């Protein structure tokens, strides 16, 4: 006689199999093929699922200085955070539009990711041997963090193109076509010699690789970037004050908080003890270029008061 426990298992099994049968039937498939697949498939393990063998084999230093590995891994970690940030922004800006609670929660996720990035940046400023860095960086020319395409995408997907134009040109550029605004974007100017118009090598390489792609993204996001999404769907929502606060936090964390800790790392490693500034691998006038109060990049200027805009990055 079958025990009550065994018959309960049989019942559950039959129920699950019938659900699977219905699933595959709806797709015009035979469940038997899928059951056979299960029979022969090897069990998933941690290393296969997370591709750790690949992940731990993509740190390829160019020199023998031990700290170059720290430099590489921390950049890779930051790129993975950028990936999570973009993943959330993509969901926030794609239809169907989420309810206001989900929108708020996801903006708070962005802030959580940035806080972690900021908090951990002392791995670069304090945790990297200065003398080693000063030497191994010479082998990295002309590569630069400036060429992080995900960083550029975060900007493009977060705000209107005009807010990414060099700040002095914004009043004149207002109302211009997206393609024209793209040509005057701040990071292009940052790596272009004033007067001669000569582009630095790292910008030339970056443009060759990503210009068409980024210009396309700028167009794609002109009406659906994070700011436009907020204006269209959430600016009148009951939770608008909380959402506004979360967006302000996001703006400040990315354009002042992160930029400031990054600038500190650059200042620590690219200024010699006697005060001489070392040239960067990306060729910008980095002391000015990386300073938030000079660059004045704000994703959501409309959410800040005139005084707050004037004092952008001044307290850091
Ligand atoms: C010792 C550590 C670091 C130093 C000395 C440093 C230095 C610099 C410098 C000088 C620039 C300006 C462009 C140039 O002229 O090359 C720059 C840009 C940049 N770096 Fe770093 N960096 C460091 C770490 C990092 C890390 C860990 C990341 C993470 C991905 C990163 C991402 C970026 C990005 C996204 C830019 C472009 C910023 C913008 O255009 O506003 N950097 N970096």
Account of the 3D structure:
With 316 residues, the chain is an all-alpha fold. The chain has two domains: 4-41, no CATH class; 70-310, Methane Monooxygenase Hydroxylase, Chain G, domain 1 (Up-down Bundle), CATH 1.20.58. The chain contains 18 helices and no strands. The protein has helices at residues 4-26, 31-40, 46-50, 52-55, 67-93, 100-120, 122-125, 130-136, 149-158, 170-173, 178-183, 186-190, 201-220, 226-234, 240-270, 286-289, 292-295, 306-310. α5 (67-93) runs antiparallel to α6 (100-120). The longest helix has 31 residues, at 240-270. The radius of gyration is 25 Å and the shape is globular. The model has no long low-confidence stretch (mean pLDDT 95). Bound molecules: protoporphyrin IX containing FE. Protoporphyrin IX containing FE binds at residues 74-75, 78-79, 124, 128, 133, 144-146, 148, 151, 187, 262, 265-266, 269-270, 280-284, 286, 289-290.
Strand percentage: under 5%
What low-confidence regions span 5 or more consecutive residues with pLDDT below 50?
A: none
The whole-number mean of residue pLDDT values reads 95
Q: Give me the number of helical elements.
A: 18
Q: Say how many strands there are.
A: 0
Quick structural overview:
This protein has 316 residues and is mainly alpha-helical. It is built from 18 helices and no strands. The site of protoporphyrin IX containing FE has 26 residues, from helix 5, helix 15 and helix 16.
